[in-house]
Amino acid sequence: MGLRRRLGHLLRARARRLDGPVDPIEALDLAYSRELATADALRQATAGMRTAQTRLRLQQQALERERPRLEGSARRHLREGRDDLAAAALTQAVLIDGQVETLGAQAERLGGDHDALDAAGRRHQARLALLRTQRDALGAQYAADRLRLRASEALAGLAAEDTAVRALLERARERMLEVQARADALTELNRRPALGDTAAIAAEVTSAAVAGGVERRLAALRGELGLPPGAPPALPPG
Question: How many domains does the chain divide into?
């Protein structure tokens, strides 16, 4: 089973045990911790197999050392005329031969299993290193993506807030312009009667000045003509 498929199985198994969504970092840590446990189990199994093989070899060597002793004992019993004891010693020697052969075969089989398990352990160490690299890389990428998401959310909120602020400022500006326009209109209305009164006063002053000048000119003309002074002319309606 490939590493990606195994990781997928681990993630799906973890997801089935959880009610809510799986946190990616937690899932990666779980997968890595399980691979560490597998690596530890492989190391223990390899070491145990090597220990068992060593024990078998020691037993085999001990039996091989026992066989010459039994053969010597059989020769001694034959010289003594104890054929039965010689036969018993040879029987044990033959049985030892079978045991030595069995132990040797078992040791060879354990040696092959040990080599296969050791090779599997090395391959698993390579997968473990790859998973560790992927975990670190994906964890860093996930952390960066979360920071980018938070930054994007903050920028989105800032944009929305900026739009709201602009709307508030626009409404305030419109209100200020409205108040300013009303104030200008009221000021203009308040100024118009004063301008009317000033114009009326100016007209009256001008009319009186003209009337006085006309009266003086008429008197001068009467004197030139030798006419008696007349009544003062009526002022124009004003």
Answer: 1
